[in-house]
Amino acid sequence: MLIYGKEVREATKEKVKRIAQNKPLSLAVVQVGDEAASGAYINGMKNFGQDIGIPVTVFNYPATISEAELIREIKKLNQSPQITGIMIQKPLPAHMRDDVVVNSLDYRKDVEGIHNFNLGKIINREAGVRPSTPKAVISMLKAHNVPLEGARVTILGRSSILGSPLALMLMAENATVTVCHTRTRNLIDEIRRADIVVAAMGQMNFVTADMVREDTVIIDAGINFDENGKMFGDVHAEAKQKAKMASAVPGGIGVITVAELFDNLTLLGE
Amino acid sequence: MLIYGKEVREATKEKVKRIAQNKPLSLAVVQVGDEAASGAYINGMKNFGQDIGIPVTVFNYPATISEAELIREIKKLNQSPQITGIMIQKPLPAHMRDDVVVNSLDYRKDVEGIHNFNLGKIINREAGVRPSTPKAVISMLKAHNVPLEGARVTILGRSSILGSPLALMLMAENATVTVCHTRTRNLIDEIRRADIVVAAMGQMNFVTADMVREDTVIIDAGINFDENGKMFGDVHAEAKQKAKMASAVPGGIGVITVAELFDNLTLLGE
């Protein structure tokens, strides 16, 4: 059975909208250069903000701006009382270090939950913002009443924005979590023994029907494009059909992440 | 075969000693109250420092000091150019919040690697200090030439100072890591399938011989005391005898952690 993200997105949207009525929220998007793909993503954010009465302001800088100059601009936004959250659109130009730029944010305005200080809170199990994709994965599972306590979860991919924080967040939900990656031996065993598989390795249709059980729950967080520009996840359609439940691509995790980012906006400021 | 920590400790000690000859290092230990157990630990640190020419200064405050006052004192140490690293001895009195006190440290002086900003670096795979017990576990494994790449590791315990950061650190070493805890179902299966088991749940002799294979490598990071004050790990002696290799308690991981803390001291300052 395919599951979709739209209802989760709408529920979160309503929740954020209600909070925004009593709390002044305002999002700044830092964009360097003007890549088309990031423009589309930013438009999605602007529309989302408009729907719920939260101003989204794009600060666009030329692709030639130096790292030091960009950081000076970010520090101005850190200090602006009108702005309560800041997102830094990736990818940044190759002459910049992502970690240095991200950590120049005031962590209290880090709406993506990717500043080192906020990531550390995940290990320490402190409340706060969380990276939006792992947040979307957990919202999707909970919205579909998938039990997490004691569940055996296999995560495919160990990235700093998805696999690694998600592992910690699912542990905090009392799941038993295994993280797999390119060096994992017997990967198929690790997938087959899972109650829940989260695919996030960025390989089109990698997980096939023979790897999953009929009672497996699949979250497909992959975003891949074929030569015609059609979007595919990391899990093959036949595997999804066989499984008990599987998130669609497109229309699954991807449509929830923007809502989770705005949910983070409501949590910032401490 | 039992393995011990002494050689690892001595090797790290020599390494730190060499670095200290060219880099001014100085450790401050913040002690609140005067519990006997923490006094013994602090004496161990002082002796270690003395052996390698690194001054260790204890700043002792009465158990009645308020959280706000303690934080003011820590901020003075943050600013002191004579001090390059600060350790906050735990447990703190019950009227203090550990996380607030720890995060009042300048993260550049956080010799324990437990400030949120430094923990976040583990998720982001940035170089830097790491909590000393998981560091000791990895040093022990490497010193005994246990292959980590592709190894299936089961960690028992998900604490913020050991299980959780260790999971991320072993993933970075290309191990396939599963973290188990009180809510894990089929815990025995998870232990039996591991190439390496790290026991860190704080239950005396919990892991028994029937749970391990003859080719299992066991790291016992448990510290428990029986009614006579004798120290025991989390793994039963018979399990250790059966396994390919198992770290002793006492004399295993515990004797390495102080050395790892001093190793962190050499990494601070950026």
From TrEMBL, chains A, B:
InterPro entries: Aminoacid_DH-like_N_sf, NAD(P)-bd_dom_sf, THF_DH/CycHdrlase, THF_DH/CycHdrlase_cat_dom, THF_DH/CycHdrlase_NAD-bd_dom
Domain Tetrahydrofolate dehydrogenase/cyclohydrolase catalytic span(s) in chain numbering: 6-112
GO BP field: L-histidine biosynthetic process; methionine biosynthetic process; purine nucleotide biosynthetic process; tetrahydrofolate interconversion
Assigned GO CC terms: cytosol
Domain of life: Bacteria
Keyword Flavoprotein on entry: no
Catalytic activity: (6R)-5,10-methenyltetrahydrofolate + H2O = (6R)-10-formyltetrahydrofolate + H(+); (6R)-5,10-methylene-5,6,7,8-tetrahydrofolate + NADP(+) = (6R)-5,10-methenyltetrahydrofolate + NADPH
Pathway the protein takes part in: One-carbon metabolism; tetrahydrofolate interconversion
An annotated Gene Ontology molecular function: methylenetetrahydrofolate dehydrogenase (NADP+) activity
Function of the molecule: Catalyzes the oxidation of 5,10-methylenetetrahydrofolate to 5,10-methenyltetrahydrofolate and then the hydrolysis of 5,10-methenyltetrahydrofolate to 10-formyltetrahydrofolate.
Protein family (similarity comment): Belongs to the tetrahydrofolate dehydrogenase/cyclohydrolase family.
Assembly description: Homodimer.
Name by which UniProt lists this protein: Bifunctional protein FolD
Gene: folD
